[in-house]
Structure formats: structure tokens, C-alpha cells
Design a protein that fits this description.
It is built from nine helices and four strands; from the N terminus they run H-H-E-H-E-H-E-H-E-H-H-H-H. The protein is of the alpha+beta class. Helix 8 packs antiparallel against helix 9. The relative contact order is 0.17.
């Protein structure tokens, strides 16, 4: 009997506030979709960082007779200088075990020809113009400054290059977009919270006399609040289902069908990351429904 009453009361509430309920569903749909996209954007940035930072090498280019670096004196690097540079690199605590690789002029020239095989510049460059170098992998790619400082300016060192100086601006831009998406999603979640509060407030006000009678005859607070709670939860779940579906469709068509096929060098978010994001979205949707319902209906439970 009680269950029939609760379901009947739920149906009456939905019919009375159909337009408001639809507005709540749409607001939650949009806000949770953007929130889930922001979560996946964070996952994607982390994957890209992990993928590229693990491959980062510090390149120590050695002097040629035409080099103008601080450690050059207008002559080719000597064998003694190369040995000293290699010793400093290998004994640095941030250098990975077996993480030092040398590249001779001939190897550098072969790499140059492969890289610019379709360019006329290849015919204007000779092997003698190439620079010998050491390529160094680090234990922790975040700790690159110590090694750069240790080898910069050593006799025989022309320049020291680190890919982080090119990748960091990219990741900062991606992080900025991620923060912007999270802020936008947060504002929409606040809007959804206020929308649910207003809907429940109007429904409770319209039935304040019924609530007062039920309170006088001894009905518990939870029993009185339950129809309102179910109404809010139902709207939140419908919006969350639409949002999760939107996220899965977006990941499938944008990431799996296009991005993964076009940019194979990157590691992209997939089903595991999307599943985690959708779980968080559903939980957030339920929180948006439960908290404002309990807070809004409390004032009508006093006799």
C-alpha cells in the first residue's frame, strides 16, 4: 500500500512538473557531458605526457670547427674532451643505467638524409658538417635541469637540447584547455543543482498541505521526502544516461575512428578511461539529485 502511494505520488509530481523535469534532465545531460569530457581530457593529457616524457632524451651536441657554442674554441672536439663529457654524463645521478648513446658524424648524416630525403637541402650538406652527439636518457624525465647544467659549458660542448622545452608549451596549453573545460562543467553542474532545487521547492510548495497532514498523522520525514527524492533521482539518472551515451559516442567516432587512425604515434583514451569517467558522472548526477532534495524539503517537514 505504501509503495503504491509513493509511486502514485511520484507520477503526480512528474505530471505536475513535466516541463521543469525536462529542463533538469537537459541541464544534467549537458553539464555531465562536459564534465565527462573534461575528465577524459585530463586522462588524455596524462597519457600523452607518459608516452612522450618516457621517450625524452637530452642531446649533447659536440663542437665542430664552425661551431660557436660557449664550450667551443673554433676547433673540432678532441677525444680527451669527448671522454670527459661522457664521464660527466655517465656519473650524473639522474642518468638512466645504460642510458648514454653516442652518434658519430656518419650516423648523424645518415639520419639527416632519411629525414630530409625529399628535400634539395640534402645535396648541399656534407658529412663533415654534421655534429657528433651524446643522447642521454634520464631516470626521471622531470629532473633534466641537473644534467643540462652539468654538461653545458664543458669544453667541447656546443649546445644541449631537451625536448621538454618544446613539449612543455604544448602540455601547458592542453592543461589550460582542460582547466577551462572543468570550470565550464563546474558552472553547469551548479546550474543543474539550482535547477533541481527549484523543481523540488515548487513541488513541495504545491503539496505543502498534504505534507502537513502526513506529518500530523505521524509519517516519518524520510517517507514524506521519498517521492521528491525519487523524482529528482529519476531525472538525474535519465540525464546521466544521456550524458554517458553522448560521451561513448564521442569517444567512438572522434577518438577510436579518427584520432587513433590518423595519429598512431599518440596513445589515446579508450574504453577503460571512458568507463571510469561514466561511473564518476553517474555518481555526481546522483549527488546532484539527493543533496538538494533533502535540503529543500526540510523546511516543509515542520508542523
Amino acid at each position: 500500500m505504501r509503495l503504491n502511494y509513493i509511486l502514485s505520488d511520484l507520477g503526480i509530481g512528474l505530471r505536475r512538473n513535466m516541463s521543469m523535469t525536462i529542463a533538469v534532465v537537459v541541464t544534467i545531460w549537458v553539464s555531465l557531458s562536459l564534465f565527462g569530457s573534461a575528465l577524459l581530457a585530463r586522462e588524455q593529457v596524462d597519457l600523452m605526457k607518459g608516452n612522450w616524457y618516457d621517450k625524452i632524451q637530452i642531446s649533447v651536441f659536440l663542437c665542430t670547427k664552425d661551431s660557436g657554442g660557449r664550450g667551443c674554441s673554433g676547433t673540432e672536439v678532441t677525444q680527451e674532451q669527448k671522454n670527459r663529457i661522457q664521464q660527466v654524463i655517465q656519473t650524473n645521478p639522474d642518468t638512466a643505467p645504460d642510458g648514454v648513446f653516442s652518434e658519430s658524424k656518419s650516423e648523424a648524416f645518415e639520419s639527416f638524409k632519411k629525414l630530409y630525403k625529399d628535400s634539395p637541402i640534402v645535396s648541399t650538406v656534407t658529412q663533415d658538417q654534421m655534429q657528433e652527439s651524446f643522447r642521454v636518457k634520464l631516470k626521471d624525465p622531470q629532473r633534466y635541469q641537473n644534467l643540462v647544467s652539468a654538461v653545458s659549458g664543458l669544453p667541447g660542448v656546443d649546445t644541449v637540447q631537451d625536448l621538454r622545452q618544446y613539449l612543455d608549451p604544448l602540455f601547458k596549453a592542453l592543461n589550460g584547455l582542460q582547466v577551462g573545460a572543468l570550470i565550464s562543467a563546474g558552472l553547469l553542474l551548479v546550474a543543474a543543482l539550482m535547477q533541481i532545487s527549484n523543481t523540488i521547492r515548487l513541488a513541495a510548495y504545491a503539496r505543502r498541505r498534504e505534507i502537513g497532514i502526513m506529518r500530523l498523522v505521524g509519517a516519518s520525514n524520510f517517507y514524506i521526502q521519498l517521492p521528491f527524492l525519487l523524482e529528482a533521482v529519476l531525472a538525474a539518472l535519465v540525464g546521466a544516461v544521456f550524458a554517458c551515451g553522448t560521451l561513448w559516442v564521442g569517444v567512438y567516432f572522434v577518438v577510436m575512428q579518427r584520432a587513433q587512425e590518423t595519429f598512431r604515434v599518440w596513445q589515446w583514451v579508450g574504453a577503460a578511461e571512458t568507463f571510469r569517467a561514466t561511473l564518476i558522472m553517474v555518481v555526481v548526477g546522483l549527488i546532484l539529485a539527493v543533496i538538494p532534495t533533502f535540503l529543500t524539503t526540510r523546511k516543509y517537514l515542520k508542523v
